[in-house]
Amino acid sequence: MTKGSKTSDLALSFAMAVVVLMIGIGVKGVTICNMDSSQLAECLPAISSGQASPPPPTPGCCDVMKLADMHCLCTYKVILPAFGVDPELAMGVPKKCNLTAPPECNGA
What is the per-residue burial (b if ≥16 Cβ within 10 Å, else e) of 80-100? Predict the structure, then answer.
């Protein structure tokens, strides 16, 4: 891995941490993958890790996912566990919402 690659990975991880913290404290106005950060919180119950049987995504979550840039969201899946999100659950949301995920997101 090159030094530039490590730097961009670190920057991406930092950016995602900021977004997740903003979701957690309810800050509005940050846009990620065509969604406001407050909209992403709509999906948290369905994708949080450590649940024996997570609830299905809400209609509101599915509405948010219809607006999302799915290719953009896929780029974040590798760092989701650091924020208490189960990647398998998260990558399964589009299918549960009857949406088509890009091929690199499938596998959930």
Answer: beebebbbebbbbbbeebeee
What is the Cα–Cα distance from 86 to 47, expressed in whole angstroms?
A: 6
Say how far apart CA 83 and CA 42 lie, in whole Å: 16
Q: Is the pLDDT of residue 18 over 90?
A: no
- CB-based contact 16:26 (threshold 8 Å): no
Rounded to the nearest 5 degrees, what angle is found at the Cα of 75, between the Cα atoms of 20 and 57? 60
Kindly report the pTM of this predicted structure: 0.65
**How many CB atoms within 10 Å of residue 75?**
14
Cα torsion angle, 86, 83, 56, 43, sign: negative
